[in-house]
Amino acid sequence: MRKKSLYSLVVLLSVLLSAFNSLASVNDSIFTEEGYSFESDGLRMYGSLFMPKNVKGKIPVVFIVPDGSAVNRDGNSTKIQTSMYRKIAYELALSGIASVRYDKRGVGRSLNPNLDSPTPLFEDLIADAKTGLKHLKEDKRFNKFVLIGHGEGALIAAEIANDADKFISIAGAGRKADDIIRDQINKQRPSFRDSCLEVLDKLSAGKTTGELPNNMAILFPPIMQNFMISWFRHDPLQAYARLKVPTLIIHGSKDLVVNPSDASYLALAMPKAKLLLIKDMNHIMYMIAGGAQENYGSYGNKRLKLSKELISNLKTFVLE
Length: 320
Hints:
Blueprint: H1 2-30, E1 31-40, E2 43-52, E3 59-65, H2 84-94, E4 98-102, H3 122-137, E5 142-150, H4 152-160, E6 166-170, H5 177-185, H6 190-204, H7 214-217, H8 225-232, H9 236-241, E7 247-252, H10 262-269, E8 274-278, H11 292-297, H12 308-319
Parallel strand pairs: 3-4, 3-5, 5-6, 6-7, 7-8
Antiparallel strand pairs: 1-2, 2-4
Helix pairs in contact: 3-4, 5-6
């Protein structure tokens, strides 16, 4: 009996290994993955290029600007394990579209070797994306350059989108960051709320606070305050109003990070943009049938697939 169980296990492992090798073979026949890097302000930014195989002539390429916090080129961090940007790159490659995704300044391989360097400002992230796109446009293999910005990356991308041929905004905020934070603080208990609003008002005025009590330092870490001040300076509505390139604005109805109504604000700022609201899609582009528990639980699940409607519209917009 034990020998039979052992034999069954060996057979199962052989089948799984064969399936894995077949999948790897299919991937190898569809695209190659190359290391990609560019220099911005004396720092080397590292990323990956998915290059479709068996294509003739020049092809379109997408430059993906990631969300905020420590999200890396694939769409993963300590709290998020979805590989969402890698999944987008794979789907685009199936349709002959190349893509570049990168570790933004301070994340993944793009760490600053100078440990004493100041925390990057929001303008630094914009400059990095602008430099990365400029570097990509020098590559003669491509004939169309499309920007995708996700979450915080949508605002970064919007600030440079006129340098591209097209722009796709996914889950982008339609209000200034300090206004969004202010709305969240106003929902807190009065004693905590009033103290936080006082700090937020100071940051919005461009002034740091120094040391704070622990409960407020979590919301406004002193080391991050200069970044927050620079972030608060950027108004998404003004950035989108300046857009002159074809634009697609995408948002999911079950986004718990950025209110889905923000997409409408962005569309009003850029009336010529195409607005796509995807029912039941969340912030990380998964389809959610249930409520908040399922939604938050999806952030650690790499096995889930991205919204089919999202992928279909990305491909169509890039290729048309």
